[in-house]
Structure formats: C-alpha cells, structure tokens
Specification:
Blueprint lengths: L6 H13 L82 H52 L3 H17 L4 H5 L2 H11 L14 H5 L3 E2 L20 H4 L4 H24 L4 H20 L6 H21 L4 H5 L10 H11 L2 E2 L7 H25 L1
Helix pairs in contact: 3-5, 5-13, 8-9, 9-10
C-alpha cells in the first residue's frame, strides 16, 4: 500500500506495476476519491489515503483493449461490497484541497502560539520577581517606620535609669526588707537621694545620737570591705555557736589566734600599712574555723548556723579592708562619723566619699533608727522643693 500523501503519484505507480512501463492515457484511466475527477490533465480531486479511495472507470488500454487491470481491486472478495473512501471516515490529517499549504501553516501557527505563550510566561515571571522586590522594600520601610516610632516613644536608657532610681528610693522609704536595711543598701539609696536635694541647710534639723553613730559601719564604696568587726581596737565578740564548736580544743585555739592577730593588725593599721603575713595568718585561721562550722551544720539550729556564718563572712570583709592602702583611716578614726544631725551626716559622708557598710551583729537596731531619720529628712526636703516650684 502506498503511504504517500500524493495520491496522483500512487495511482501512477499502481498503473505501472500492473501493465508495465506504459503510462495509461488520461482518457483511459480516470481517478476518483469521494468526488472523482480526471487523473492527469492538471486537475486533481479530493484524494484519500489507501486503495479504498482509488479506482478507475473501465476504459481502453493500449496494451489490453477493453480490460481494466485494476478492476479486481474494486471488487470485494467477501461479497458485493466495494472498496470506497466512505468506509474509512474523514482523515483528521487532511485539509481542504483549496489550500494545499494548510497543514504547514497550521503547524507554523502552533509554533508561533507556543513561542508567544513562552514569552508571556517569562514576562509573568519577571513581574512576579518585581513583586517580590516591591514587597521586600515595603517590609523594610515598615521596619524603619517601626524603629523610628520606638525611638521616639520608648523610654531611653537614661529615663530607665532614672525610673529605676525612683523605684529604689520608694522601696527604701517604704519600710524596706530587713536584709536590705542591715546590709546598708537602703541607707545608701537614701544617702544618694539626699545628696542630690537642695543644700542641707534648707532642710529640717533632725538630730543624731553619737552612740548611735558609733554603731554604724562605713566603707569607701568598695564592695566586700567592712572594717566593722575590727573597729573596736581589734576586739572580737564571738557568737555563741562559734564558742561551742567541736572539737573544742581546736576551735578554741583558732579563736585565740584570730583574736591575737586581729589586735596586732589593728595596731599596725593605725601606724601604717598592715603586714601582709599577718593578714594571711588571719585568713588561714578564719578558713579553718569555717570548715569546723560547716562540719556541724546538721547539729546546729538554723538560726545559730546562719548567725555564725554571717559573722565569719564579715570577719573576712574586715581582713580585706586591712589590705587596703587606706586601712589606717578606719583604724585611727579619720572616717569615724561625727555629725550632730542628718544634714551634717550627709555632708560628711559625701565629702569623704563614704558609704554605709553592713551592720555587725548586735547593731541592727542602730541601722533601723538611722534609716527612719534619713527617710524623714528626705521626705521633708522633697516637700520643700515641691513648694518652691
């Protein structure tokens, strides 16, 4: 079967194969396909693929007169049915014969359409990419606007510091916890606040007792320094729990060493720098006594253990004070409080850069009394300042 789309050529090939090399005359071989037209003469009809659409009317052949060599092809061996193009239906690949270039043009159109859709897709991708950039810029602009708003409306570090100082002052004024009172923290807050108030001469006259001031411990603002336990000529007053530590002989020996060396260190401080070896011996004895205390933590009441631990901690603070260059100022009384009123106390401590140190055991009540005096003075001066405004 000829598979070529040129049906005229197919008919010619069949004719040559059947009757030899002689080409039939146009008048003798007429081609039909659904609406047959003459074969040859330059006129073509509507061709159909396959032999079913090809036939010849009987005619005269120069070689075999009166016989059509293709007649057998038009007759079905299975009956009276004849081969025709109607049995096969329309060919989806064929186009109108009025335009022989239709298939080519349709394929070209499909290629152009695909290329156009590709270009549209590429441009849409570019637009989506630009949309992403635009969204990023919008987010960046929003973040910048939020930062500007926060900068203008949120409190600054200085405002936060002032706010924190105000809260601490209110806490110190309104009956602070005893731990903050006895550690000197609340007194230092009141002292700092009073130092920023108008001149003390304009404030109320709140007198202070000398005996009360002798129980107040001071330092130069350096943490962990408290000369309080050594201020009484180096004499140490031991808590009950430390007097009953076991083994009794070892604990007694350690207490005696500490007492003897403490007096020596105090005398050295009044005359000049303290011998570092003396301080080292004091620290070693204190450390051994702390180990004895820790070994009996389960045998002592909680209150007695806490008191003894606090005492040894303050003793170590006093030993650190002995290492300071100005240890003699604590021993010879230069930093001793000499003030007849709260205003004088504030002026003296501000002038020498002094701070309140933790209270030694037994002096807690003096810290409470001084706190009330400082709080009353601060409130009174604040009211006077508000009235002047």
């Amino acid at each position: 079967m000829c598979k070529s789309r040129n049906y005229q050529l197919c008919a010619a090939v069949f004719a040559l194969l059947t009757i030899g090399s002689v080409v039939p005359q146009a008048a003798d071989c007429r081609f039909f396909a659904g609406g047959a037209t003459r074969f040859g003469g330059g006129v073509s009809g509507r061709a159909h693929a396959g032999l079913g659409g090809v036939g010849f009317y009987p005619g005269v052949s120069p070689l075999l007169p009166g016989i059509n060599p293709l007649t057998s092809l038009l007759t079905s061996p299975y009956g009276a049915a004849t081969m025709s193009s109607a049995a096969y239906g329309a060919d989806p690949y064929l186009y109108s014969t009025a335009d022989p270039y239709g298939g080519y043009l349709k394929g070209t159109a499909a290629v152009i359409d695909a290329q156009g859709r590709y270009l549209v897709t590429v441009e849409q991708a570019y637009m989506a990419k630009e949309d992403v950039k635009r969204a990023k810029l919008a987010n960046k602009r929003a973040a910048l606007q939020e930062w500007l708003w926060e900068r203008e409306n949120l409190p600054t570090l200085e405002q936060e510091r002032a706010r924190d100082a105000q809260q601490q002052l209110q806490r110190a004024l309104n009956d602070p916890p005893v731990t903050e009172l006895w550690s000197g923290q609340s007194l230092n807050v009141l002292l700092q606040s009073a130092a920023t108030l108008p001149p003390q001469g304009q404030g109320p006259n709140i007198p202070l007792d000398e005996e009360l001031l002798n129980k107040i411990n001071l330092n130069t603002g350096k943490g962990g320094i408290n000369f309080g336990l050594l201020k009484n000529e180096g004499n140490l007053s031991w808590p009950t729990a430390l007097l009953d530590l076991k083994p009794a002989a070892e604990s007694q020996e350690l207490r005696d060493q500490l007492q003897r060396r403490a007096k020596e260190a105090f005398e050295q401080a009044k005359k000049g720098p303290v011998d570092p070896n003396t301080v080292k011996e004091l620290e070693k004895s204190s450390e051994r006594l702390q180990k004895l205390l820790l070994a009996q933590v389960g045998d002592l009441p909680f209150a007695d253990y806490s008191e003894s631990k606090r005492y040894l901690g303050q003793l170590n603070d006093g030993l650190r004070a002995l290492r300071e260059p100005n240890a003699g100022d604590f021993a010879n009384g230069k930093f001793k409080l000499k003030a007849g009123s709260v205003a004088d106390l504030i002026q003296h401590m501000t002038k020498h850069g002094l701070k309140f140190a933790p209270a030694t055991p037994g002096d807690e009540s003096a810290y409470g009394a001084l706190h009330r005096a400082l709080a009353d003075y601060s409130v009174a001066v604040s009211k006077l300042s508000a009235e002047k405004r």
